[in-house]
Give the backbone structure.
Amino acid sequence: MNSAKLAGIDFYAPSEIVARQLIGVVVLVDGVGGRIVETEAYDREDPASHAFSGPTERNMAMFGPPAHCYVYRSYGIHWCLNFVCREEGHGAGVLIRAIEPLAGLDVMRARRDAEDVTALCSGPGKLCQALEVTRAFNGRSLAQPPFDLAPAPPGLDIVSGPRIGISKAMDVPWRFGLAGSRFVSRPFR
């Protein structure tokens, strides 16, 4: 990939811009996935970010090239998928919090052992389980298989608010979502 523009998004942009622009983008992993309906932005100057204290073995992918994956395990339980942005070495990313399932619903249901379509991908751990994203995806390019990204349609109503499940910078409104979506992890206020 010669540039970090993918699905109409410039991944060199600040994370809060990329996070907003990712709403409505369709992401497929081996043909399974859906429309991104909720994201959160993180930057190296943000005390809630894994990049805040600098590069480590765990977060090195977050300092890697834009339009690549940063995957980590949260609370030792579930995987979380982030899309790296900004220039290489900066340390910024966007957590994909929820998607609206569109393709491979039977596969997702089997992987999650869940029937309710709204519960399949309504949280970072749930969507990683449904898409079968693991640490093996860490550092992978979004421009190459198994990923396929399609641009968001124009004119979406996007809402923002404070991020979820963090203990620092809790008032920063860097959580973005598709207004009225029943597939978000938690309703926006």
Q: What stands out?
A: Strands lie at 5-6, 9-10, 26-29, 32-43, 69-74, 78-85, 92-103, 147-150, 158-161, 175-178.
